[in-house]
Amino acid sequence: MEFNILDNEKYIYNLDKAKLIDVLLDFPNQFKKAEKIIKDLEIKFRDDYRNVAVFGAGNPSTVAFKLIESSDINKFKLPIVFCSTSKIPAWVTKDTLIIAVSHSGNTLEVLNAVDRAAEKGIEIVAITTGGILKEKAKAGNKIKLIEYSAPLLPRMAVGYIYVLLVEVLASANAIGISGIDKDRPSGLNWDDVENELFQFTRELISENKIYKNTAKKIAINLYDKIPIIYGINKITGTIAYRLKTQLCTVSKIFAHYNTLPEIYHDEIVGWEMRPELREKFFALFITDKSEQGINKKRTELLKGIFIEKDIDFEEIAIEGSNDVVKGFKGIFLADWISLYLAILNRVDPNAITLVDVIKKRLEQIDKT
């Protein structure tokens, strides 16, 4: 394999027909754009909700919620549950705030959940770029609409969705935020995320050659392998999940992820497979550079086992000024890795043919 194609910008741009690379270059701008939307809307919320249900399906809403759940800047004041199906939990009442998240506005699971919640007279906030969800909000039914404009593939809108979701939860007094900035709607200052991502971009862009480009080097290690990705805590577990999903959708390969200490209970035994099978895998440990506790010791233990078993692996240490910065730097790195691996695999990084096929068939099933 000629890995030097990763240093051929013309080749990359020719294969990347929908210009995913341009989306990545603009990714750090999502945070302030989303914040401005919230500032301009001035939506009012009750102050007596008892709990919150967030409905979403797929990569961006799942990643956004996982980051909110694991970040050190957020303190949950209310029970907040993420629901990826259309079923309304039994505990949902008129004292529940429902947040429906769908980038396209056409996610079946979210639309069905909204219909069922509206029938019960439950307050709903819709976060979307348009589609049927926007139409439902415009028609009334106690649905507050937060609309953003982002002509992106849904999986690339995670910055928008994260900010809008955090701002809604903070405005509804469902989460408290440390490090308050009175000039910001929720108290969060998104400058840190934007600035650190822009700095990180210089290391990851296609102009940066393989020998000094972390994303390109990792993509080369993953080429012709089955990636197994491990996170050591909630933040790095979210990054591991993002990398796994991006490798599947962008790079068109199978990948698996898990977190410590979960793998010690069962999955670790699977590595006793025959040596010729182990050769097909490459493990990535997503670690937190500031981690000094039990998770660091667990990681070293696992790395030792992999060395004994002669399993190929690499450690990616994530650093940043806070958990949100760490999370998005890891997500950003994952997205660049998946793009470069798509180039090595000579596949269109934007096509999701099987997902589209399944959606169409599910629509037919839903009509019967």
Explain the overall architecture.
With 368 residues, this protein is α/β, with parallel strands linked by helices. It folds into 2 domains: 3-17 and 196-345, Rossmann fold (3-Layer(aba) Sandwich); 27-189, Glucose-6-phosphate isomerase like protein, domain 1 (Rossmann fold, 3-Layer(aba) Sandwich). The chain is 46% helix and 15% strand. The chain is built from 14 helices and 11 strands. The protein has helices spanning 9-15, 20-26, 30-41, 59-70, 108-119, 131-138, 158-171, 191-204, 214-222, 234-249, 275-278, 294-308, 323-345, 353-367, and strands spanning 51-55, 74-76, 80-83, 96-102, 123-128, 143-147, 175-177, 226-231, 256-259, 281-288, 313-318. The strands form 3 sheets. A 5-stranded parallel β-sheet has the order 3-1-4-5-6, sandwiched between helices. Strands 9-8-10-11 form a 4-stranded parallel β-sheet, with helices on both faces. Strand 4, helix 5 (108-119) and strand 5 form a beta-alpha-beta unit. Helix 4 (59-70) packs antiparallel against helix 10 (234-249) and helix 8 runs parallel beside helix 13 (323-345). The longest helix is centred in the C-terminal third of the chain and has 23 residues, at 323-345. The mean pLDDT is 91.
